[in-house]
Design brief:
Helices cover 64% and strands 12% of the residues. The chain is built from 14 helices and 8 strands. α6 packs across α9 and α7 crosses α9. The longest helix is centred in the first third of the chain and has 55 residues. The termini are far apart.
């Protein structure tokens, strides 16, 4: 028995190596599994923290946009990346970024010079007015885009670029792109791509207007005919067409860079007594006709006729009456701001 026991306890070198290996692995397991458990908890905690942070950001952003109607630059940049809607028009989302872009383009220059011209109460009233106007305009642009899509109407990048350069040279002044974008930034709070977005929306809306507003097209044709028959007598045409058109006189020289839909710029190209013919206003609100009375190097005196576009507005108001426009923000009224 003793001989057998001694034989059993005698181990080969391979067995000793295997035994030693198992001892090392056993000791390693004591550290491995606790470490795996710790790493697992770190991953879970990280995910939970990320979810909480994202939730806080989302809730904060939602409150800032939809509850408190904030319009600061950071939110504007965020809405350009995250396409959240500010309203729905006939099932199409109105981008929050478009609303903020239109609002900021109206209020930027006013707020930058507010210290000398406006008190806080006046500023609040202006903010309320421009917010309402910007929301309505953003909704109309969305509706125009829907109509354009249905009619196959498009605006190319080349058209937008040409319009940008036309704006750059308004008034016949040669400006560099850098200086013009600085003007846009100072006066509208927008960079070049954002300004081009505004130009795109305006061009698209104008194309839709000319496509659907047959009455305006017929009145514009009538104006052209009457001007030809009356030797460009704008007053005679105004009397003949009455409230179908808008007749206006400058009653003297005005700056050729006057913000008037492009009329002063067109008048500057003419000779006294000459008429421009039909063109679409820069802001896309109708057709213009301009007749130059006289001018100097920097000023013009002219009369004009505007044939307003009305079809898109009437269809838009019909949508509102049919409750096909849903707004996700509640804006303060002018009465509330003045209270």
């Amino acid at each position: 028995m003793g001989i057998l026991k001694k034989k059993d306890t005698k181990k080969t070198e391979q067995e000793k190596v295997e035994e030693r290996r198992e001892e090392v692995l056993a000791k390693g397991r004591k550290f491995k599994y606790p470490l795996q458990w710790t790493r697992h908890r770190v991953v879970i905690n990280t995910i939970l923290i990320a979810i909480v942070v994202i939730a806080i950001v989302v809730v904060t952003g939602w409150l800032a946009l939809y509850r408190f109607n904030m319009t600061d630059e950071l939110l504007f940049r965020v809405t350009k990346i995250v396409p959240v809607p500010v309203a729905v028009v006939d099932s199409d989302n109105v981008p929050f970024s478009d609303y903020l872009m239109l609002y900021r383009s109206s209020m930027t220059s006013i707020e930058r010079q507010s210290g000398s011209q406006f008190d806080e109460e006046s500023l609040e009233q202006l903010r309320a007015e421009y917010k309402e106007s910007a929301l309505t305009e953003a909704e109309k642009y969305t509706y125009a885009a829907k109509l354009a899509r249905e009619a196959g109407i498009t605006v190319s990048n080349e058209e937008v670029e040409n319009e940008f350069w036309r704006h750059l040279n308004i008034g016949g002044i040669e400006r560099s792109e850098e200086s013009f974008t600085k003007i846009v930034e100072d006066n509208f709070g927008l960079n070049k791509s954002e300004y081009e977005r505004m130009l795109y929306l305006s061009l698209l809306k104008s194309k839709v207007e000319t496509n659907i507003d047959q009455e305006a097209n017929q009145i514009a044709d009538k104006v052209e005919k009457l001007l030809a028959e009356n030797d460009n007598d704008y007053m005679a045409v105004a009397e003949a067409l009455g409230d179908k058109i808008n007749y206006q006189e400058t009653n003297g020289l005005v700056d050729s860079k006057n913000i008037d839909g492009g009329r002063a710029t067109e008048a500057m190209k003419l000779e006294p007594g000459e008429s421009s013919g039909k063109f679409i206003s820069i802001n896309g609100d109708g057709y213009y006709f301009v007749k130059l009375i006289n001018k100097n190097d920097t000023q013009v005196n002219f009369v004009s006729i505007r044939v307003p576009f009305t079809k898109l507005n009437s269809q838009f108001e019909q949508l509102r009456e049919e409750n096909k426009i849903t707004e996700y923000i509640t804006l303060p009224t002018l009465e509330q701001t003045s209270a």
